[in-house]
Structure formats: structure tokens, C-alpha cells
Amino acid sequence: MKVPFGNMKIHYQAYKKELDEAVARVMESGYYILGPELEKFEKEFATWLGAKYTVGCASGTEAIYLALAACDVGPGDEVLVVAHTAVPTISAISMTGATPVFVDIKASTYVMRESELESKITSKTKVIVPVHLYGHMAEMETIMKVASRHGIKVLEDVAQATGATYRGQTAGTIGDFGAFSFYPSKNLGAFGDGGAISTNSEEMYKKLVMLRNYGQSKRYYHDIVGINSRLDEIQCAILGAQLPYVHEWNDRRREIAARYTAGLKDVVVTPVEQPGCKHVYHLYVIQTPYRDELQQYLLDREVQCLIHYPIPAHLQQAYAFLGYKTGTLPTTEHIVKRILSLPMFPELTDEQVDLVIEGIKDFHKERGITFEMVQSARTLAEQSV
Ligand SMILES: Cc1ncc(COP(=O)(O)O)c(C=O)c1O
User: Fold this and answer.
1) Burial grade of 264 (CB within 10 A; 0-12, 13-18, 19 or more)
2) pLDDT for 375
3) Separation of 181 CA from ligand 1 center, angstroms?
4) How far is CA 365 from CA 257, 355, 371, 374, in A?
5) Residue 64 Cα: closest atom of ligand 1
6) Is 139 in the pocket of ligand 1 (CB under 6 A)?
7) 95 within ligand 1 shell (Cβ under 6 A)
8) Which of the chain's termini has less CB crowding within 10 Å, N or C?
9) Beta-bridge mates of residue 87
């Protein structure tokens, strides 16, 4: 593949010395779970975010689950969320026994359409979960206002947006909680699974610490029902070694995004960065009505593109029991047929980015597809901000 979608091996090689040292330090230490590396990383990550506390856990999915569990969300409760997300956002809600209630998205930035929230709130609504999809934050000011008006908690799904900001505040520090994933390809990734929850509440922090460790307040004293969801010492050491580089990597992602946009803005629909928001481009997603043909054309040129995500959660077989019909979330259903994620990772070279741009331009030129023909996607995007 001339331009792969991601390349963790290159990433490892670039930071091999520091990563190997971090792993060896843990191996030699004799502490592998809930040890000094976790304590250090949780403090450093909280400082980096500008949050009071972070709590490491086993994955982003469980970060969402644990935060919901800390709010005592359970059967009979409703959680407002988007269907255009990685399905694990929804799995975590289901794990609590609560019902996900889907809100449509804005086709400009692909995040929760905050103007729809109010109409979906019922007496059962406990939490709103805005997903900062692709690295762009949701409209937090309005979301927080709606939530406080109704006495509802806000849990930011930050899995794809580590380091993103909204009016100067870092993702995960505005809501009651932020849930992070350290899946390897994320903006800050482990070399295995991992996650964390951020919060400014001491009470919630203490509860989360118990919840992730069988509900124990001290060894063999189980005050609440918990699970095993811990971030192990090796992953903590790896994450701690990489944390100082995340801003640099995010800047490189933004540089790549700017190069893509300059080359493609008159060919396909390119991503929007709302004023006051800093997009960290976990994914760079374009829209074109010729998506499937374009994806194959690029693959033939050894450029690997993916779709995030082809089937929204409300139309997945697993969630058929919720009873959503096609047509209930029009913007979500419209854009999932048109979106395509281009290769995006900090180690991508300018030459590789140019190969992707050239491929997309050639595809449109060879088929006589003008920008006007692509506009049908953009028209809806602009209408639905
Ligand atoms: C938006 C979003 N939420 C939640 C998750 C779940 O994270 P994890 O894979 O670490 O469980 C992911 C990762 O795939 C994600 O992209």
C-alpha cells in the first residue's frame, strides 16, 4: 500500500527508545496493576487536560460505562446520544441497562444537533452524551445549558478528540465527565486497549476509583457493585511517555488536514472547523455522492480509505429492538452514504498526502464530475448547521 490508512509500526519505530524504556521499567518493577505508573499517569493526564481528576480504565467503552454507572444510570433511564458514532458509545449505554435515545447530527461538523435536544428530553432522561466525532467538539455551551435546565448530567465522548478545544477549554473538561479511549490509533494511543475518565468532582472521582476495581473501598471491602476495568502499568508507562508529544502530533494532523483541504476544497465537500473550535482530526472525512466508486478507485492506486461509519447505530441489527425505522434520523442517514475517511496519522508524509489528493482529483476529472455535481451533498450540509 502506497498510502495506508494507518501505520502503528512506523509510530513505534519513531519512538522506540522511549517506549522500550518505559515497558522495561515496568517489567523490572514488579508492579503490573494499580501501581505507581497509573498514579503518575492519572495526575499528568489530568494536568494536561486541565481537569481535577482522571481515572484510568480498560477501554473507552468502559470509560463511558463507568461514568454512567457513577451517575447510577440503569434500566428505565434514557441517555441522549447520536447514532452517528462508533457503536461502542451505544454498547456502553446498553451495558447499564438504560435506553439510548438518538438525536440527529449536523452535517457540517457531524456532531450532535443541539437544537434537537430539548424535544427529546423526558422525565427519564439522565445523561446527555455528546460525541466529539472525528476530533471536532460538539456545541458544548448549548448542551450544558439544556442539561442544567433539566438537571441532567453531561458525559463527553472524547475517544476521537484528545486535545481538541472549544472556546479554549479542552475536550473532557466541560461536561461532568469526559470518556477517553487509548485504542492504538487514537490521538493518544496505548499499545493495547486502554481508557480514562476525567471529572472535576471529588465525589465522582472516588466512586469511579471504586467502580473500576470491583467496587472496593479498600481490599476485600466492596461498598458498591463494580467491575474489573483497570489500566495496566505497562500501558500507563507507554501513555506517560507519549503524552508530551500529543500537541505536536495534533499540530501535524492539522497541517495534513490543511493540505488536504487546500487540494480538495473545489472537488469534494471538505471538513468544517467551527469558529472557536480546534479540530484535532482523528479522522479527515470528505463527502461525495460517488463515495463507493472513489474508494475503490483509490484502493486500485494503493490508497486505503475507510468509512466511519457505514451503518448508524439505530439501523444496526443489534439495536433493532429499539424500533427505529429508516428515515428517523435524516441527516445521519444521508451522510453515511457519502462520507469517506482519508488516510490521517502524524507520520504521513506530504508526498503521500499529495498522492491521495491527486487520486481524488483524477477520479473526478476522468469521469467529468464537476464540483456542482458534488454540491447536492453540500447543500444539505449547509442547511443543517
Ligand atoms: C467515538 C468512540 N467512542 C467510544 C469508543 C470506544 O473506545 P474503545 O475501543 O477504547 O473501547 C471509540 C473507539 O473505537 C470511539 O471512536
Assistant:
1) buried
2) 74
3) 6
4) 22, 15, 10, 13
5) 4
6) no
7) no
8) N
9) none
Q: How far is the CA of 87 from the centre of ligand 1 (A)?
A: 8
| pLDDT confidence of residue 373 | 87
CA 148 – ligand 1 centroid, Å = 26
Q: For each successive 10 residues of the chain (385 residues), what is the average pLDDT?
A: 96 97 98 98 98 98 98 98 98 98 96 97 98 98 98 98 98 98 98 98 98 97 97 98 98 98 96 97 96 98 98 98 96 96 98 98 96 72 50
Verify whether ligand 1 is closer than 6 Å to residue 190 (CB atom). Answer: no
How much is the pTM?
Answer: 0.97
Residues sharing a CB contact under 8 Å with residue 109, sequence separation 6 or more, in sequence order? 136, 271, 272, 274, 277, 385
As given in the structure block, the three cell numbers for residue 28 are 523490572
Name the residue of 181, 212, 235, 341 to mutate for ligand 1: max ligand atoms within 8 A of Cβ.
181
Number of neighbours of residue 189 by Cβ within 10 angstroms: 23
Which domains are delineated in the chain? Answer: 8-103+110-244 (3.40.640.10), 245-383 (3.90.1150.10)
**CB atoms closer than 10 angstroms to residue 182:** 30
Q: What's the confidence (pLDDT) of residue 385?
A: 47
Q: What confidence score (pLDDT) does residue 380 get?
A: 53
> How many angstroms does the Cα of residue 179 sit away from the middle of ligand 1?
9
